Amino acid sequence: MISALFSHYHLLVCILLFSLGLCAIWMSHNLIRQLIGLSLLQGSVLLFYVSAGKILGGKIPIFEAIAVKAGQDTQLYSNPVPQVLMLTAIVVGVATLALGLSLAVRVYSAYQTVEEDQISTQLPQKNEAADVE
Amino acid sequence: MWNEIPALLVFLPLLMAPLCVILSRNGRFAWLVAILTLGIVFGLSATSFRHILITGEELRYHMGGWLPPAGIEYRVDLLAVSMQLLISGAALLNLIFALPAAPKEIGRNRLPYFYTLYLLMVSGALGIVSTNDVFNLYVFVEIASLATYALIAFGEDKRAPLAALRYLILGTIGATFLLLAIGIVYLLTGTLNIDDMAQLLPQLPQKTALVAAFALFLLGMLLKMGAFPLHAWLPNAYALAPSALAPYMVSIASKLGLYIFLRIIISVTDINVIHTIPYVSDLLRFIAIASIVLGTASAIETRNIRRLFAFSSISHMGYMLLAVSLGTEQGLSAALTHLANHAVMSGTLFLALGGISYRVGHELTLENLRGLGRRMPLSGFACVIASFGLVGIPLTAGFMSKWYLMAALYGNQHYWLMAVVLLTSLFALVYVWRVVEALYFSTSSQPYGEAHPVLVLTGWVGVVLVIWLGCSAVIQQRISQPIAANAYLQHLVTEPDNQKTEPDKSDVE
To answer: Which of B156, B179, B192, B298 to mutate to test the interface with A (most CBs of A within 10 A)?
Structure first.
């Protein structure tokens, strides 16, 4: 059990980052910090995919004829698909972060702050806006 | 020829979206591009709907000619094509509505961006329902969601960007859970294709990781649905979205979460996963009841009309989840019928409210609605019909779906759940009646006249649909029941030995 944990230490790192990201979103009342937490959350999933596709001692996945010419063992290669998938996920993450930050700028220009506590004091009807918290 | 339609439906709006920004200085041209695109999309989805309904075949399209396990496949069956029709219909109606409503609220120089994002959002939603590849599904979820976040921030209220940011954070957490679940299943099976996955999953030696993946997936989708403990984003997002977007959002946005959930449990895992994985059925039932009760209770104490009906849509998501949690054919078909009916009713309601907003301003409360029923007879009456539909008054669509929900509950001897549904419907009458009272039974000296004719027209198209769906059982008989029967039939054919996992009647209490 313990050895299984240590042999899959990359998963431990992913879980740690994932939880840190969730904690940052959950506990912080600063919108920018929440967005940082969100990036951390997405980053942990990127690591999860990419590390899972890697095989220790595996070669780069290229077409056999070229690989043989380069003197490589073609039997064992790392899985390229997760990396390709994560390329898309990185783009999605960047777009999300960009949109989130631009919304944060809009929030800042409306309230002069990105702290949720201070924003909620400025909201017009307290009871109606309670769910913003 | 038919097989190309799913790809066309997704890529036409995607390609036309930049055109709105590049070619147009003002909103009028962008609107023309958008209406042309969505008109074609609606026509195509209507013809492919008719085709699938008559022939019963599935449409499959292979991106770039690559065959399924390696390439991305689009697969459209009856469930998907019905959703396509619902999405494109709602999008088209809302776009017609936006012609007079959007310039007033959004400002002419920002209109091209509004329509661009609108097309992207529709493209993402159509992609979600068409694709047969789980990673592609994730990408489309993000396309649709990102466009929606940005569109909510167009709202004129000062709180709109904040609501959009809240939605962005929670929605992205949901999508990340989905991505993680996809990753786990990909590592287990080595495939992303839904059909391929469905074949490989039963052969797995041990399924612990699969349960973890299902839990992550369920959590992510409950966030997207806005079910009870995870609904924090929903009321503000629905209430503060520009009224030129709200009808589409209310009818489609949270339903997509439910659609993905149903698509995965029907096509990937077997449909009985609700019973085979412990506690899933109970958890869903608990969440459903909590959403129904708390949604209704919050709606009763809210004075802002849009927030009130946003809470009401949380409770209606609860009814759908309740029907799904039964895990029976009747339950599934009741959930699908209610999905379509609620989309029509809530969309109609927000079209009518948008018509009132056109004169009154975005913020609608019980106070400033006073006496408007007589000033704006058509919009007011559309509002009343749609909200009666939400209660489930006979001759409206809501009655039909609640009837089938009750029948499904009765068929499984869940008598106390029937009582919950009946009681909450009564309480729904309370909050709807307060709106009707404000509209018709109070005096006001407000000078407003009837809304713009286009707004009234779109609202009344919705009203006609609500009444028609209330008088004919066409959705239930021609669409929901065949889909549900097929979902359970597939399971019977592939794994006959799992039939012992019928709903356990003793776990009701």
So the answer is: B179
Q: Which residue of B has its CA nearest to A54?
A: B187
Q: By the CB < 8 Å criterion, does A54 face chain B?
A: no
Lowest pLDDT segment from B135-144, B437-446, B498-507: B498-507
φ/ψ of B73, rounded to 5, equals: -115, 140
**pLDDT tens sequence across B490-505:** 766 554 444 444 444 4
**Which range is least confidently modeled, B214-218, B275-279, B395-399?**
B275-279
- Put simply, whether B180 touches A (Cβ < 8 Å) is yes
Residue pairs between chains A and B whose CB atoms are closer than 8 Å: 82
The 3-state secondary structure of B125-177 reads HHHHHHECEHHHHHHHHHHHHHHHHHHHCCCCCCCHHHHHHHHHHHHHHHHHH
End-to-end C-alpha distance for chain B, whole angstroms: 52
- For residue B61, is it left (φ>0), alpha (ψ between -120 and 50) or beta? beta
Mean pLDDT of chain B: 89
More confident residue, B52 or A57: B52
Contact residues, chain A, for B307 at CB < 8 Å = 128
Residue B505's pLDDT is 40
Calculate mean pLDDT across residues B34-47. 95
